[in-house]
Amino acid sequence: MAKDTSSIGSGGGGRTLTVKLKKSAGRSVASQRWLTRQLNDPYVAAAQKGGWRSRAAFKLIELDDRFHVLKKGMRVLDFGAAPGGWVQVALERGAGSVVGVDLLEIEPIPRAHLIKGDATDPEVQKQALELLGGPPDILLSDMAPNTSGHAATDHVRIVALAEMALELAFTLLPPGGTFVTKLFQGGAEQHLLVPMKKRFATVRHAKPPASRKESSELYVVATGFRD
Description:
Order of helices and strands: HHHEHEEHEHEHEE
Number of helices: 7
Number of domains: 2
Low-confidence stretches: 9-21, 29-40
Oligomer: single chain
CATH architecture of the largest domain: 3-Layer(aba) Sandwich
Radius of gyration: 18 Å
């Protein structure tokens, strides 16, 4: 059975009930806040209902609905793939072959090849290309560092990951390829756009509805890679 790949609407007219957690001596304030947010997040509920590995699946769904980057039969390479939501979306939307790479173990996903390893490791890249059956038509990166709670530090870390992903895109994509990556707004990401615009025909920004309003994350969608 196909999954529901529609994004979450705000309509319906019904009243949304807010779940409130009682304070617990065993939970920190940050943990309490996170749990409350998860319980009241419609995307979390929709992901569980639809069989998606995470709410992040809806981010790719919404990006693809807008930019149409996923094509039937294409080869998809997903870096930072755990727990596998973007891999699921790529397969659901007709990808011919999908390889997901992450430092963390990913539970098996039918029809997908999953690698536990470092995306910058040449041996991991070689294995990924062999499993794909050729260079990726699209390289996806939803990689994110462990957050420190310090906004400036977290911004630098996410930009460093995006920069690494861009270098991998330059290395692995064929002419005409597509690159989708996550960034955090904060200024330091601007230096990535200059080389990106030189090597891709089109570079666009988007904050999909599934991205939490309080989050500074946005996504860059670059198409038409020039070798």
